[in-house]
Design a protein that fits this description.
216 residues; alpha/beta; 6 strands
Length: 216
C-alpha cells in the first residue's frame, strides 16, 4: 500500500486528488495539508510514502516544504504538482530533492501510474511537464549566459562581493566573509555598480542569482 500525503491550498484540488487516489486498491490517502508548514508536520506525523506537493502556496511554499521534508530521516518521495503557467522555480524544487513533477491536469489513470513508479524510487515527469521543463531549462540557460556576459568586466574580488549581495548579506557580513574592511567592500560595490549599470542592491542581487554566483 502506497500512503500519499496531498498538499495544496485549494480544498477542491485536495478533494479531487483524494477521490482519484482512493479509487486505487494499492494507494491510501495519508492526509492533506494546506501549506508547506502543515505538510512538513504531517510528513513527520503520518509517515507517508509519497507527498504530492503544490508549489505556490501562502506562507511556507512548496519549494521550502520540499527541502524540509527531504531533510527528514528516511524521507518520503516528493512529487511536485504544477499548473506550469508560471512555475518558474520547478527546477529549484528538483534541486531541493523532488523526485519529479506532474501537471494538475494529468489524467487520473496516468496520475496513479506515475505515483506507483515514483514510489519505487524512480524520477517521473508527466509529458506536459517534461515539455515545460525543457523550455524552462533553456530559458534559465539563456538568462545565465546573458548575466555572465554582463559580468565579464568584473574582477574576481568584485564577483565575490556580488555573490555576497546575491546571498542577501550586508556590507559588514560580506566584509567578514572576504576578510575585508567595510570601507573596502563599499568601494568594490560602488565600482561594480558603475560597471554593471545597477542602481541598487536588488538589481545586483538578481543579476548574481541569474549568473548562479549565489550559494542560497
Amino acid at each position: 500500500m502506497i500512503r500519499v500525503l496531498i498538499v495544496d491550498d485549494e480544498p477542491m484540488v485536495c478533494r479531487h486528488l483524494a477521490t482519484i487516489l482512493s479509487a486505487a486498491d494499492d494507494i491510501e490517502v495519508a492526509g492533506t495539508a494546506a501549506d508547506g508548514a502543515e505538510a512538513a508536520e504531517a510528513a513527520v506525523r503520518e509517515r507517508p510514502d509519497l507527498v504530492l506537493m503544490d508549489l505556490r502556496m501562502p506562507g511556507v511554499d512548496g519549494l521550502a516544504a520540499t527541502a524540509r521534508i527531504r531533510a527528514l530521516p528516511d524521507p518520503p518521495v516528493v512529487l511536485v504538482l504544477t499548473t506550469f503557467d508560471a512555475d518558474g522555480y520547478v527546477i529549484e524544487a528538483l534541486r531541493a530533492g523532488a523526485a519529479g513533477f506532474l501537471v494538475k491536469s494529468t489524467p487520473p489513470g496516468e496520475l496513479l501510474d506515475l505515483i506507483r513508479v515514483a514510489a519505487q524510487g524512480h524520477t517521473v515527469l508527466s509529458p506536459t511537464a517534461k515539455e515545460g521543463l525543457v523550455a524552462a531549462s533553456a530559458t534559465a540557460r539563456d538568462e545565465q549566459a546573458r548575466a555572465l556576459a554582463r559580468l565579464r568586466g568584473l574582477t574576481e574580488r568584485e564577483r565575490e562581493v556580488l555573490a555576497g549581495i546575491g546571498d542577501g548579506l550586508s556590507n559588514a557580513q560580506i566584509a567578514a566573509r572576504l576578510f575585508l574592511s567595510e570601507t573596502t567592500v563599499k568601494g568594490y560595490i560602488s565600482r561594480m555598480f558603475d560597471k554593471l549599470g545597477c542602481d541598487n542592491r536588488t538589481q545586483a542581487g538578481l543579476l548574481a542569482k541569474a549568473a548562479r554566483l549565489t550559494s542560497r
